[in-house]
Amino acid sequence: MTITFRAYFMTQEAREMKKSTKSWIMIAGAACFEVIWVIGLKHASAPWEWAVTVAAILISFYALIWASGRLPVGTVYAVFVGLGTAGTVLAGGVLFGEPLRPLKLLLIGLLLAGVVGLKLVTPAQAESEQTKGLN
Amino acid sequence: MAWVMLIAAGICEMFGVAMIGKLHKDRNWQSVCLLILGFGASFLLLSLAMESLPMGIAYAIWTGIGASGAAIMGMLFYGEARDVKRIACIVVILGAVAGLKLIG
Q1: SS3 at position B28
Q2: Residue B85 with chain A: CB contacts under 8 Å
Q3: Which domain holds residue A105?
Q4: What's the complex ipTM?
Q5: Which of A41, A39, A77, A31 is closest to B65 using CA atoms?
Q6: With an 8 Å Cβ cutoff, are A107 and B99 in contact?
């Protein structure tokens, strides 16, 4: 009986963990699409480029909203903004030859440390009370 | 005037993020509309403010108000964790973002 209960409890926990990991992947995905639309807003000229930009905006917000149902919205938005900014700066350096000064890389490192820290302090069952059971 | 628009843009962003929280709570189309309205107004006001303010400063302040405001509102209205480590991590992320925008 105890064993069955524990096994059940552990699968619950594993399920929460899996759901939480998926949410973090969704935020990273949202940030990747944010990089695409930020570049698009700056450089798009052909109609298909604008179409890609608009699609990227919709996808990034969809992923952002999805993740906010499973993790605290303040956390999700800070990570989204952080990863999006880091990605945009790196993309600017790699794709458009903007200088990546040591200070920029240092700030990106600091930013990523903050994101990892936030992931560590956010419990797997971080869903706020009101969203529980709605997923 | 540009500064007023910039601060308003930050507040609209904060409002947009709050509507994401409301959407999950209430699950209605009204929240979706308010969300689009919030972010739409925010981007519009930001681009208007950027016509006369330096881009890096405008971006840094806009993000600062929007994302930190969103975190504070999450704690006040949606019962999100207030522990020091969480707040410190958010401050580090947003500080680094503001720094990157300023030196950008």
Answers
A1: coil
A2: 117, 121
A3: 17-123
A4: 0.92
A5: A77
A6: yes
